[in-house]
């Protein structure tokens, strides 16, 4: 897929993110907007998921370990045609399948129910280990937040992934530097993230998380690595694309009002 096409998808996904959160009057826009290029790269250039194989065991898997950024995940699934775009309007509503954290029992394209930080990457390790034990060729992708790295369970999973040489596992860290209480390094400093993953035995790359070419190249390099799990540390901007949300911790879990929504959509363009 051409970069211009990916950029067009990303713009539409961002518009749906802010509309979805505004419609629900709750949700997590900041970390959703920062992860758009990462998720678009995974779903449109890497994963083999489609409506034809969505219910099959014979496909790649994705785990949203930072499970609160469902506005981004659902918007990407809608962009991919895996859920109806109209369904985004039901986000966080009573009896909706699109709850604030993903539920694999409600949405076929959701591969793991997540929300408690650290548990998603652990599940992804289990999936990759299962593939290895059964000789299956499929990849497992996972997306973590940098604040999530403060959870000890993340590093237990990282240790296990390296111990079992899970080279079918490709994790991304959305490194936007902010979490709900402020700067990640002030709350509980997880840096240097790259050196920590290297010490745990992972193949590590650091890229611009809003650069499609860099993300795609990093994915291809990661898939060529044998005997090691891979992580791509993607440097991003929280709230990317909406000026008043960018690099502002308060937009971690705050919904825009009608005036702010109008400004956001005007900035994002058609």
From TrEMBL:
<feature type="domain" description="Transketolase N-terminal">
    <location>
        <begin position="9"/>
        <end position="269"/>
    </location>
</feature>
<dbReference type="InterPro" id="IPR005474">
    <property type="entry name" value="Transketolase_N"/>
</dbReference>
<dbReference type="InterPro" id="IPR049557">
    <property type="entry name" value="Transketolase_CS"/>
</dbReference>
<dbReference type="Pfam" id="PF00456">
    <property type="entry name" value="Transketolase_N"/>
</dbReference>
<keyword id="KW-0808">Transferase</keyword>
<keyword id="KW-0786">Thiamine pyrophosphate</keyword>
<protein>
    <submittedName>
        <fullName>Transketolase</fullName>
    </submittedName>
</protein>
<comment type="similarity">
    <text>Belongs to the transketolase family.</text>
</comment>
<keyword id="KW-0479">Metal-binding</keyword>
<dbReference type="InterPro" id="IPR029061">
    <property type="entry name" value="THDP-binding"/>
</dbReference>
